């Protein structure tokens, strides 16, 4: 059956269910039978380390299994009645495992949701999903020589890439340097040792920072003498990435470096700032060009909707009635009247008004 | 008589009024902080039950049509299931979701910004005419278009016209066709008639209404009967019955909110420089509750707690019962009226007002409770109160929840 005729069936069905969609009824039978919002069912929660777990999720209708290795997905979980959104790298390789995806999560001491995901999520729970995004990906074809610099749970996107290379049976010359406080806290430690044993072209360096201290990037010349020739992917805590970026800059090699930060990276120029008015709530606030509309609204005491706070889940989208805002990630400007904009990644360019 | 100053009417000092406001704010904060998994489970359960009822009603009618079995009882069961589903959807689910009562869940499928309900009026127009115009200007003459819906004369201050003699008949028609009366409500026919309505806005609204209304009619009166084959007629009459039952029920509930004795009207002097606390006070004086068990409250969208709903339109309806205990205690403490009674008495009073006000003031007496130590102004000569456009109204208050308008 072609997709077109299926769409036709659904459109015809909506005549019976208007103003609802047929999916609103079908999802009563099986919660995954809905395309209104991307959903998934947690099939399995596998403990990886003491504080990390892999969630195997079966996505519902509308999901495509063609994520690129290294990309992340948004996941929305209802905690105390409220959907909380975060983003996690997909650790499973694309397509091959068929009907599920896996994400690996480490419980952060301050992270309410990550702790809930690792400890509190029961198999069978229905979660919301956002389509895969991100440029921290394995190129196709992969370069001949690669270096991965990984700290802690930064291993997850890299794991998706290594698994993909492994499945394809075409492991190029890869060096992985993986830092973790202790061996016990190393996610995927056994699987990496297994990969290391099976592929001559893969070299895995483990660094246990509690014992041996942090990686000094000057030591790279010894650990991986040809690091300057390799295309490099780095993923880990912010300070580590800052150091990596500085080191690569010093050697004028930033073209060969890919970084993944799990926080909003404000690459673009800020806006000029201005007075932001919230029409429905009747509140206004002066915001500078580096403050997101979301932060400004919260400061003003407006009940702003939000999710991932990094431009992925679109939960924060509001109608921009008038004025212009700038996307802080890339400098794109939005200023059509009544344009829906994501407030968590935009800042005011002059005065603007939102409908909330 | 209409109140021009709530402080004066209630004999409260400014400090007392502010204190009432603070106490109501504290109730709001407490409920907001305690919303959680049980509340989310409640609305999700309601939605599940409602969709189950709707599906069961449709299936019963289709099965009856195709097997030819079941006769009258199957027809009645189908119509009843469908009618219950429509009532539950309009009252406890649609109305309350569109107030933003469940927006805190951050669930895009149960959100005021995109909920569309199973009735002819487009959600966007409802959110304007109801959430904003009615809830902010509750019972203010000339501002709140819900005082008689532009069809009935419901306040003695509204000018009598010979056409008002037909009120009992208009009332019966409004009740039967309530869905369609509501559908046209935000158009504001009175302002169209006077040529005051922006023609572009009118066209936009009409297009929305036609699109929505057409789908509603197609569904109940064309598609399902067509699927019923030879017995299309019985499906059509069952659907019609369900729609009319929903119309009558929602009409009764809504008329019990502001038209029983004790629900006061206000003049525009009241909303000049009205503080947040005075707005609260106006909601208490302008609304009327009715009593009943949990099932009655659910089937009426918890609008039996009309006072609580008007104080906190965007707090979850399943909490109104609990809030009402606190509000009642507060009213007792400050000697404020708290209007309530059994459903039949509240509706009876509304109906009596409809009939009474079909006649000029001098032929009838007022049923409003007279304010203590104040001259009764009920029979003052009426002033013409032209309806206001949005531009002439004060800006929206924060207590009203969200309202979104589509771009085109």
DSSP, total strands of chain A: 17
* Spans where pLDDT lies below 50 across 5 or more residues of chain A: none
**Given the helix and strand composition of chain B, which structural class is it?**
mainly alpha
Structural class of the secondary elements of chain A? alpha/beta
Number of domains of chain B: 1
Which percent range fits the helix content of chain B?
Answer: 55-70%
Termini of chain B, distance in Å?
A: 42 Å
What does the model show?
The complex is a heterodimer of chains A (356) and B (408). Chain A is of the alpha/beta class and 356 residues long. Chain A has helices spanning 3-17, 22-29, 112-120, 155-168, 189-198, 209-212, 220-223, 238-250, 293-300, and strands at residues 39-49, 52-59, 72-79, 82-89, 101-106, 126-133, 145-151, 173-180, 202-208, 231-235, 257-260, 274-278, 283-287, 317-327, 333-334, 339-342, 346-354. Chain A folds into 4 domains: 1-30, no CATH class; 36-133, Translation factors (Elongation Factor Tu (Ef-tu), domain 3, Beta Barrel), CATH 2.40.30; 145-260, Rossmann fold (3-Layer(aba) Sandwich), CATH 3.40.50.80; 274-354, Ubiquitin-like (UB roll). In chain A, strand 10, helix 8 and strand 11 form a beta-alpha-beta unit. Chain A starts with a helix and ends with a strand. The relative contact order of chain A is 0.10. Chain B has one domain (2-33, 117-400). Chain B contains 16 helices and 2 strands. Chain B has helices at residues 6-10, 14-34, 37-67, 71-98, 123-136, 167-176, 178-185, 189-193, 199-227, 232-258, 268-271, 276-286, 294-299, 306-311, 320-333, 343-356, and strands at residues 2-3, 265-266. Chain B has a two-stranded parallel ribbon. In chain B, helix 2 packs across helix 12 (276-286) and helix 4 (71-98) crosses helix 10. At the A-B interface, helix 2 and strand 4 of A face helix 3 and helix 9 of B.
């Amino acid at each position: 059956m072609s997709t077109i005729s299926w769409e036709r069936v659904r459109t015809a069905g909506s005549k019976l269910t208007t103003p609802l969609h047929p999916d609103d009824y079908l999802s009563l039978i099986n919660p995954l039978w809905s395309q209104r919002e991307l959903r998934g069912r947690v099939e399995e929660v596998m403990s990886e380390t003491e504080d990390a777990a892999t969630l195997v999720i079966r996505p519902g209708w509308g999901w495509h299994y063609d994520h690129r290795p290294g990309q992340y997905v948004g996941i929305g979980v209802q905690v105390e009645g409220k959907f909380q959104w975060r983003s996690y790298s997909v650790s499973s390789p694309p397509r091959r495992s068929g009907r599920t995806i896996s994400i690996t999560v480490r419980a952060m001491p301050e992270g309410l949701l990550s702790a809930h995901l690792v400890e509190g999520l029961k198999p069978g729970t229905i979660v919301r999903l956002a389509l895969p995004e991100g440029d921290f990906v394995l190129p196709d074809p992969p370069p001949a020589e690669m270096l991965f610099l990984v700290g802690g749970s930064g291993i997850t996107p890299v794991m998706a890439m290594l698994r993909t290379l492994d499945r394809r049976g075409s492991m190029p010359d890869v060096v992985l340097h993986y830092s973790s406080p202790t061996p016990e806290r190393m996610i995927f430690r056994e699987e990496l040792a297994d990969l290391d044993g099976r592929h001559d072209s893969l070299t895995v360096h483990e660094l246990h920072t509690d014992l041996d201290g942090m990686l000094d990037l000057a030591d790279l010349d010894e650990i991986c003498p040809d690091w300057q020739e390799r295309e490099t992917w780095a993923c880990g805590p912010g300070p580590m990435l800052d150091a990596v970026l500085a080191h690569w800059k010093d050697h004028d090699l930033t073209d060969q470096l890919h970084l993944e930060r799990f926080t909003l990276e404000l690459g673009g120029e800020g806006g000029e700032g201005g007075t932001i008015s919230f029409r429905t709530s009747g509140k206004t606030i002066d915001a500078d060009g580096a403050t997101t509309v979301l932060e400004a609204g919260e400061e003003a005491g407006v009940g702003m909707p939000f999710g991932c706070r990094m431009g992925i889940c679109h939960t924060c989208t509001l109608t921009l009635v008038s004025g212009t805002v700038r996307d802080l990630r890339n400098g794109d400007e939005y200023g059509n009247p009544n344009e829906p904009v994501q407030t968590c990644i935009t800042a005011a360019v002059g005065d603007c008004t939102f409908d909330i | 008589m209409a109140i021009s100053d709530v402080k004066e009417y209630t004999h409260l000092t400014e400090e007392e009024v502010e204190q009432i406001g603070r106490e109501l704010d504290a109730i709001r904060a407490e409920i907001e902080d305690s919303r959680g998994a049980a509340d989310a489970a409640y609305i999700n359960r309601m939605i599940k039950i409602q969709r189950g009822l709707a599906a069961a009603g449709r299936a019963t009618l289709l099965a009856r049509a195709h097997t030819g079995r079941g006769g009258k009882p199957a027809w009645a069961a189908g119509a009843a299931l469908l009618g219950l589903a429509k009532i539950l959807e309009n009252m406890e689910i649609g109305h309350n979701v569109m107030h933003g009562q469940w927006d805190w869940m951050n669930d895009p499928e149960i959100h005021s910004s995109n909920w569309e309900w199973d009735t002819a009026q487009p959600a966007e127009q409802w959110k304007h005419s109801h959430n904003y115009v009615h809830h902010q200007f509750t019972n203010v003459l000339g501002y709140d278009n819900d005082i008689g819906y532009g069809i009935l004369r419901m306040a003695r201050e509204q000018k009598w016209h010979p056409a008002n003699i037909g009120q009992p008949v208009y009332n019966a028609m409004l009740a039967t066709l309530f869905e369609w009366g509501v559908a046209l409500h935000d158009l504001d026919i009175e302002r169209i008639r006077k040529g005051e309505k922006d023609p572009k806005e009118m066209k936009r609204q009409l297009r929305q209404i036609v699109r929505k209304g057409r789908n509603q009619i197609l569904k109940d009166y064309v598609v399902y009967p067509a699927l019923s084959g030879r017995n299309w007629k019985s499906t059509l009459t069952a659907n019609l019955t369900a729609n009319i039952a929903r119309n009558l029920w929602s009409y009764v509930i809504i008329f019990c909110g502001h038209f029983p004795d004790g629900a006061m009207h206000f003049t525009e002097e009241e909303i000049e420089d009205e503080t947040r606390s005075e707005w609260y006070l106006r909601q208490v004086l302008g609304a009327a509750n009715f009593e009943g068990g949990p099932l009655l409250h659910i089937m009426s969208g918890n609008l039996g707690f009309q006072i609580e709903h008007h104080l906190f339109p965007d707090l979850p309806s399943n909490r109104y019962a609990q809030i009402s205990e606190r509000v009642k205690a507060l009213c007792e403490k400050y000697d404020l009226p708290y209007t309530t009674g059994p459903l039949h008495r509240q509706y009876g009073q509304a109906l009596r007002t409809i009939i009474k006000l079909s006649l000029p003031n001098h032929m009838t007496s007022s049923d409003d409770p007279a304010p203590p130590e104040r001259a009764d102004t009920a029979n003052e000569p009426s002033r013409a109160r032209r309806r206001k456009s949005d531009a002439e109204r004060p800006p929206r208050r924060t207590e009203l929840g969200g309202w979104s308008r589509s771009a085109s």
